[in-house]
Amino acid sequence: MISTGEEVVLKRVAGGSITEHRPLFSSDSLSLYIIWDDGVRQYSTKTGHFVQKLETPTDAKIVTLIANPSDSNLLHAFTSAGELITWKQDTGVFENKKILSLHLSEGKKISGFHWATQKSGIVVVENLEKSIKKFVKYDFDSNEKEDLPTIGQLGMFTSSVGGSQSEVFLATIHICNLRIINLKTLEKFKHKVNPDWGNFTCVRAHPKLNLVATCDKSGRILLWRDIMTLQSIKTLHHWHKLPVNDIVFTDQASSFYSGGRETVLVKWWLDGSDSKEFLPNMEATIKNIVISPDNKYVATGMSDNAINIVNSQMKICQTIQHVSTHFEDRAEAKSVLARMAFDPKTKAIVVNGRSGHVQFYSIENQSYLFLLDVVHQNFLNQERGVEMVNTEVVMTAVSSDGNWLATVEERDDGKHHYECRLKFWSWDWQHRFKLQTSVENPHQRKVNDIIFQPAFEENCCRLISTGMNSKFIIWFKTEENNNWELEFVGKLDELVPRPVDFSRDGSIFAVGFENCLSVWDSRSNEMKSCLTRPDAPERINFIKFGNDQSSRYLVAASDRKISTWDLITLQLVRMIRLKVSFLAANPTNDHMAAFAENGELVVFSPSESCPIFKKKILTDVKVSSALYLPHNEVQKTKISWQRRAQLYFMTENQEIYTLKSSDDLRIDETSPLVFPQDENAFATPLAAFVAKQTLSEVKKIEPLPMWKQQVNAHQGSFLKMMCETPAHMLPPVQLLVGDLIQEYLNIQSGAKLKPREEVSRVVAMEFVEESSSDSDAEEINKKVRKKKSKSESKKLLPVEESNLQSVASIEYDWVQMLFDSIPMTSDEEN
Questions:
Q1: CB atoms within 10 A of CB 646
Q2: For the whole prediction, is pTM greater than 0.85?
Q3: Positive or negative, the Cα torsion across 412, 413, 419, 422?
Q4: Mean pLDDT of all residues in 487-495
Q5: 578: number of CA atoms within 13 Å, CB side?
Q6: Whose CB among 350, 628, 720, 774 lies 3.0–4.6 Å from 645's, allowing a Cys bridge?
Q7: Which of 407, 511, 402 has the alpha carbon at shortest distance from 461?
Q8: For residue 404, which of 427, 370, 384 has the smallest C-alpha distance?
Q9: Helix, strand or coil for residue 333?
Q10: How many Å apart are CA 751 and CA 741, to the nearest integer?
Q11: 595, β-bridge pairs
């Protein structure tokens, strides 16, 4: 039965840019405010942690954040609907909202706001038809507006307000012209530069001085003084080779910062020495720069969706990172989007992000976990007139137990040899992925798909890759050194294999060869059947095996339709006309989700003729990948087909969405806990005193050495006793070897602690007592012999008797010979 009446709401759970707009420091420089998901979020400058989300009573898009010029405790946000929203910085409480009476005509939209005086501001309006910016001066007391006689070019930072209180001005750039207008007298000034230098990219006015900086596409920075005269004074600063994206002055104009596509933050000193400081290798293009009121911190918004907080020593002290987006700064180049995967070890979604990296993002905690550097290559910055191509991660796959990660990376500049590598990464005891095997050009050409085989047999781990060389390859893990080697190469005539999928139990797998669907046996690697229709020439893009009651079905999706095949009768049972952009299967039941190119979502079961859910959920954007994340327990949501697992899908903009009911959405929107930034930020003095006293009473736990971590992992008391007891207090080796081997036997068999081990624990406790005399050591030896005789007199189980007999039959003379062969030092002989 088709269910379209369920009240579902589209919710973005991750992704979206936090660097599209400039962030804003609080007046005390302890917090940083950013715009994300049509709201404002507060982060701690010292820790980089999320503090709270400010209540935003508007549905309009926030276009800028500004501080109040007269009250340092007020924070403002301006929206595309002409709304000025105000909060208190010390509490984050919403104060008020004022709607400006602008009455804009069609084809115009609000893109920014600047404070002019304490009671007036400049509204930035974009005229999309003429591709220019216009500026409106608005008086908050009289609610009167006035169009300013100046224009600016489209762009993020093409206008700025600055100057002293007596001479406040608006600076705008248009092509290669700098336009200045005195906001008090409305007097205009126009300054030009050489057109050969290239168009301006951004402008920044000093907030207290009559000083303006402009940047252009050639990387030049011009400082303009005496701007409200016909003959201004220009100073040229040139280090950047590529366009400069943003620039900011310090409070006293003793220096300024600039950044762009070189991924380098530059600090320029204005003391006449023309000296510079650099922060290189920032991993991504710098999009915007802001400075804190106390000049201690600089925040840089990066093109990979990160905000770096840099201290005055030009070192990154904190990073605020949302889902890392893959950016492509080459002209006419598309971003590379790898298919999402789920890592059961970290409970995170795995997808490519920053160039050459794979990121792990926790949907449950909405937190960015870590980046894995896959290619291990320096990021190549673009050069003027030359396009530099970096190696990119194009595919990821994670094994069902989370012990293995597979990645495919490639580089193709169209001029040199095509590079492609298939890498296998193992999850080690240090909770990180370690490169185990790298295969160079596994298919000699492009790789189309990769997938791990589900747990089929013990110690069996395999992966299938398909490529443009008309072959698929089965790779297996060797037991000797955990390396991966080639096991089998399959093909079907000269058809190109693309999608591949395993059945739930891993016993069979299917490979799509263009319009042919082949089914293979996992044990013998033999093809069992080939399913095709002469009237269906379209290429198969996605393959999914059915689950539970639909395990007999195999679903194939193309650009035109979804086909369901019965693997028992080898017959086509049903078809759905749909242009599929992605197909995902639910691991907890037999449901599947098909996303159409027109934004429609169809949830269906291969065994049912009617879809379970069908509705258009997206417009003007296509789904690039999707997956189901199982719940820990069955949920009580009104969306019945999401009670066992939640469906998440990622768009071409690398934004991750899910579907929620209205009731679930209200629960999710409850206010988060606000964590204090320091011990002085508690609600009451008593709370601060109690917290400080509690922290002072807590002993700092030092991390254990690596050998102790390994010893503790065995959970063996006797082994721990041997490692922790001083050597001069240990009994003779002849009395220890049997217990040590017995403990290892118990570990191997998984048995519980035996009475013999309990004796060892008691002895170990007695050994830690201080004793330095020979009489004390002899007393300890007597206790060991006495306790051993008591434990041996107890009745043993058959398994214990067999273990003891095997231990008793072993000769330990080699231990004495080993110690006899060790030369004694002069101190030991004495």
A1: 21
A2: no
A3: negative
A4: 95
A5: 27
A6: 628
A7: 402
A8: 427
A9: coil
A10: 14
A11: 582, 601
